[in-house]
Amino acid sequence: MGEEDLRKALIALGERLRARTDIVVGGAGALILTGELPRSTSDFDVLYSDPDIGRLQEDIRAVADRLDLTPGWLNGSIQTFAGRPRDLTDVVALRPTPQELHFVRSELPRLRRIDQPRAARLESFLDQYHDDEP
Length: 134
Fold this sequence. Notes:
Elements: H1 3-16, E1 22-26, H2 27-33, E2 44-50, H3 57-67, E3 74-75, H4 85-94, H5 98-114, H6 116-132
Parallel strand pairs: 2-3
Antiparallel strand pairs: 1-2
Helix pairs in contact: 1-3, 5-6
């Protein structure tokens, strides 16, 4: 789904919902929706929803059927940490500022306590990204 598809899907979902619903999205879908990331995605990651995303499944599936989307086009299974090759490609496309890169580096010790292999991959990426910066 590109930016237009994401907007259409969210509008269609909004038209179906009968009660106030708050949804906070993240991941590539959020960046695509804001125009910051020029690519498509297969899903839209929910960081928070009220009511809970589980209670919205009937409406989410109905929108998927109507717009010919995958049933999980809107889901709560966001990756807790970027580290897949496409995530790292996205980081390069976003051109983080030196301050943002510093912040990520400052969080590495905490990540190491949680997931050493991912922390190592991220540190390696940051070292390579820094070396490749224009």
